[in-house]
Amino acid sequence: MDQYLITGYDYTDDGAFERRMNVRPHHLDGVRELKAKGNYIIGGAMLNEEGKMIGSTMILQFENEEELEAWKLNEFYITQKIWESVDIKPFKVADV
């Protein structure tokens, strides 16, 4: 499987954090589905100095780029405008 480092940076408008918290349960349900299918490796929220969530980082794996694109089309943090920008890079988890 191809592995990817996904970094999503949240919007910074006044309602951004509340929007994130409202959408978060749906995002986590999607992560659970990814984990059950073997696509999820690790992930979590990025925090600012005050400990407030400001983005996310995930390492996911898919059989091909079409599966990655399908995930992007259905990821709640993308479709519900939580992540203002998303950076996706090919990644290789160290085999130790």
CATH architecture annotation name = 2-Layer Sandwich
**Tell me, what is the CATH class?**
Alpha Beta
Question: Structural class of the helices, strands and pairings?
Answer: alpha+beta
How many alpha or pi helices? 3
> Helix proportion of residues, in percent?
25-40%
Low-confidence runs:
none
Q: What share of residues are in beta strands?
A: 35-45%
Per CATH, what is the topology?
Alpha-Beta Plaits
Q: Can you list the strand order of the major beta sheet?
A: 2-3-1-4
What is the residue-averaged pLDDT?
96
Number of domains: 1
Round the Cα radius of gyration to an integer and report it: 13 Å
Task: Quote the distance from N terminus to C terminus.
Answer: 17 Å
Taken in chain order, the helices and strands follow as EHEEHHE
Shape: globular
Task: Give the biggest sheet.
Answer: 4 strands, antiparallel
CATH level-4 homologous superfamily = Dimeric alpha+beta barrel
Count of β-strands = 4
